[in-house]
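Slide 14.
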Amino acid sequence: MAPSFDEGNALFDFVVQKGNGVKGLVDNGIKMVPERYIQPPKERIDNKIINSNDQLLAIDLSKLHGPEHDQVVGAISLAAETLGFFQVVNHGVTLELLESLKASAHNFFAQPPMKKAVYLKGVSPSPLVKYGTSFVPEKEMALEWKDYVSMMYTNDDEAHAQWPVECKDLALEYLKSSTKMVRKLLEILFGNLGVTLDEAKLESLTGLKMVNMNFYPSCPNPELTVGVGRHSDMGTLTVLLQDGIGGLYVKLEEGVEEGKDEWIEIPPISGALVINVGDTMQILSNGRYKSAEHRVRTTSSASRVSVPYFATPKPSEKIGPLPQLVESDGVAHYKEVLFGDYMQNFFGKAHEGKKSLDFAQNDSA
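Slide 15: predicted structure.
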């Protein structure tokens, strides 16, 4: 017999605390989105958005080694300065790995609830692995239509020993392949700012590495809810594997009337990886690069997965505008903060656009 979700507490207990997740609701045959998931009208996503931005074309990283090097560098830098999102192909992560990674994500979430719930916050046998749903369910007025598993990287041995057996090998290979690409992209982006960072500094800015697997079950009323609400990522750069179904939307900041929001969809491109700028990069660049406000819609046609790899600073790292840029700009738009404090603030609140950046705002600038 399917449980009753008429009471908000019963739904929260079933989905969040017992670890059934949104998938548990769908597997129980719900015909309508429960009230707890219904978003305010201004947060709902109109999927009739037309892709009309040239920056959505994939950038071919193999051309960095030929006569088109400067054009590729220019395209990457321009995207980071404006949209905060771009897509790359010939990135060094094999297509076979990407396909296997998507399959392993589906395999993980297809398991019985009790197999996934062992990784729930507070009971997970490993501090490196967390399974959950929504973003911060305890703080959200409306829940997000998403389940996830998060895997933090310390070293290979701990990853092999503690990450879920269903996906650990592929997730680790994805992380390592992506790390090489992230390092190259950072060299390009910092070089565009006229800054050269040594190996130790680059490592500290990407020293906390995480792979998430997100699962968006098919939704009976996708127009009423969201897979992920409006937010920017907290880290340096994010690498994202989409699964071909689509649903990732980015907010335009330039060329839009004041007071009017305009969103475009990042179209799934076979074999491509999506790259987006995080808050840390906006802070380091003194605002020249834009962390991208984005969100994810749900769909009624099929369940979908995505696999982000987050390259973020170590919690002990202090982040602030690079001194060379403050000197040339004449002002620091952000103050220096401990990344661990920034991270704690980020995870302490529900998604609310780019509000997370307020934590580092220099009020005297």
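Speaker note: The chain has one domain: 9-41+70-360.
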